Amino acid sequence: MISFKSKFLFIVLLAICFVSFGIVFFKQKNNTSSFCSTMNFVNIEKIAIGYDGATVYAIDNGGRLIEFSTLTHAITQKTISKSTSRLMLGYAGKEIFLTVNNGDGFLSIIKVATNTLVTTIPIPANYFSYNDQVAVSPDWKKVYLIVKENNEDKVFIIDSTTKAVIGNIPVGYGAVFSLNIDGTKLYVLGRKLSIIDTLTNIVLNSIPLEGTASSVAINQDGTEIAVTISGDMNSSIKIIDAITNQISDSIEVKDITPEKPSPYGIYNVMPENVMFAPNGISAYAVDPFWHFGIVYVVDLNLRKVVSTIPLGSHTFSMAISPDGEKIYLLGVPFDGDKNVMTVIDAHTNSISSIIPVPDPEPTLPEMFEFWFKSAVKKIKGFCS
After folding, report:
1. Which residue, of 58, 98, 192, 382, is most buried by count of CB atoms within 10 Å of its CB?
2. What are the structural domains of the chain?
3. How far apart are CA 315 and CA 94, in angstroms?
């Protein structure tokens, strides 16, 4: 029989826990510090823009889809799945898809514009989940994944209706890939660039690449391909003729604003996430580290970097408006812990606005986890 004293002590302890939890919740809701640190559940590395240019979409590490209005700069957030899920954004032709990997052996593909589930497919064994790379055909009928088999990477092609594997293509090693806008060619990037005809599933050409290749893009008319290369002594953007499938130019990527030294060393220029402007005249690449984040602007007629735009934030992903007027980037400033949306004017190659992205309203389980960890740190004396 539990004594009255024991019951009383239990109720008092429970009350203290609830009061403490309430204080943490109230403080966090009002964006003030609580216990050892503030919560920050958002970690954004991938964004995409709708074909009408009205909305920029982003995903975070809490299973949420973030929508940014390019007209009003209003930000809304939707919970898509549980916080342990892995999300990925991509383009199916001109439309945007979202994939959800809950770690249960299945991959869900959602059409973002209508928020409708297209398909849920079983993930093949040995699925190579680096950045959760997925490609979807413009007609939504095919899904492409990279799978490792017998020490070799293969592109698996899955029918989105029957969910059956309808083809696999050996590519040696592949980590990043992209479809052209009409879905007729798939470009798989690794130690080489493999160009695949999606109608015949034949590798048309494999182009060896020196250095570390990190991103690949195709211009809108499908005539040129760009690949970012990082090296110990130099970095470049390789331009490939999509007709001949051969490298036509190598554009040196370098900082042309040397008055601000990078903390990462003089040779550590690392261009990533290359993108063509819609008019095909310019290309852009983002470097998340050099000068605390920078955008390289490439004139494709001159075949050289003509401008660099310091960001001041750790940024991997960007999106270009359909009219080519604006460039949108999401990242975390190096002197802070909150995400910001940086908007660049493509005419002046300068930042036109920086908009803070508010942290999402934390759920009760997230708040409890934060409270518990902070309390443990406080008890152990880890906090100042």
Report:
1. 58
2. 85-207 (2.130.10.10), 209-359 (2.130.10.10)
3. 24
Look up residue 33 and give its two tokens.
């510090």
Nearest to 97 by CA among 65, 73, 131, 54: 65
To the nearest 10°, report the CA torsion of 284, 287, 290, 295. 30
Asked if residues 339 and 357 have their Cβ atoms less than 8 Å apart, the reply is: yes
pTM (2 d.p.): 0.79
| Tens-place pLDDT, residues 201-247 | 999 999 988 888 888 999 988 899 999 988 766 789 999 998 888 89
